[in-house]
Structure formats: C-alpha cells, structure tokens
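cron nightly-structures :: item 1 of 1
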Amino acid sequence: MSSSNGAALMPDLFTTEPFTLVGTQCESGHSSFPTRDFCPVCYSTDVQPIELPPSGTVETFTTVHQARSRDLATSGRSGRNSGR
C-alpha cells in the first residue's frame, strides 16, 4: 500500500516522502481538504487535485469518543443498539 518513492499511500488523502496532504482546488482558487468532486465555496465542478502547503488554518474539527469494549461490558450496556 505504501511506496518508498513518494507515491500516494492513500491518493485522495496524502502522499509520503515527503508527507503532504492532498486536496482539491477549483478554477477560482478555493482549496479544500479532503478531496471533493466540487468546490464547497463556489460549487464549481472544475476541480483539480493539489498538494497542500505544509501549514495552514484548521477551520473545524471533530472529536469522537468511543468506550473500549471492556468498559461497555462493566457498564451493563452492549454498545450496539442498546435501546436508547
């Protein structure tokens, strides 16, 4: 899956050697990550893949909390479809 020559490990997310995030840029210059089929700003479908610069601004993020399976066992809940 990976390559030592800088080929993309996951072509729609990043490359290795050097590590670079891959996003898309529309004809108006709007960039986004991860890659998209259209520009989320101007809705243009004329987007091209680009290697993103090594620094930038994070505008949003998500934190997902997940209990370990043994924690669920001691809490009395199965963790799946617990009826709540």
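cron nightly-structures :: done
The two ends are 40 Å apart (CA to CA).
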